[in-house]
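Lab notebook, bench 4. Still working through the backlog of constructs that have no structural model yet. Next entry is a single chain of 160 residues. Request: give me the structure tokens for it.
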Amino acid sequence: MTPEQYIYRLIEISEKKLNILKEILNLTKMQSAIISEESAEKLDRLINLKQQQIDLISELDGSFEVYYARMKSILGVKSIEEISMVQLQGAAELKQVITDISNTTKQIQKLEIDNKNEVQTILDRLASEIRRVKQHKIVNNGYNVASKLEKPSYFFDKKK
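Model written out:
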């Protein structure tokens, strides 16, 4: 294969990855809405969908690495930044797709952090409610101790 063919193959793989990342971004936005609804089932479904997309990205990354390594060895460069945009047709397009991938990944990371913080807030609130219920139960049990005690027995002396 020629370096240009490697470039176009890398562009193809990167565009597929970008499309999948955009889908993950949409799923993450939907996840934000579901977190506020506190629907565990819907959230679980979304997480599974995201995992499937992540698995696809892993496969694409493996293919990308193979073609990228071959292209670098043919061109004798260490990274894509060393490739002159004029030198290879499609190099500028590849760099742009990689930049788009990076930007989309940053958006996903920001949303994930926001979602994690929101989930933590919900968990903290639930933990507080559980502690409050336990305290009420302890107090309630303290008032009902008398009913659980055995009735005192009395002895009447009838000899007198």
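Notes after review: The CA atoms of residues 84 and 91 lie 8 Å apart. The chain has a mean pLDDT of 84. Flag for follow-up if needed.
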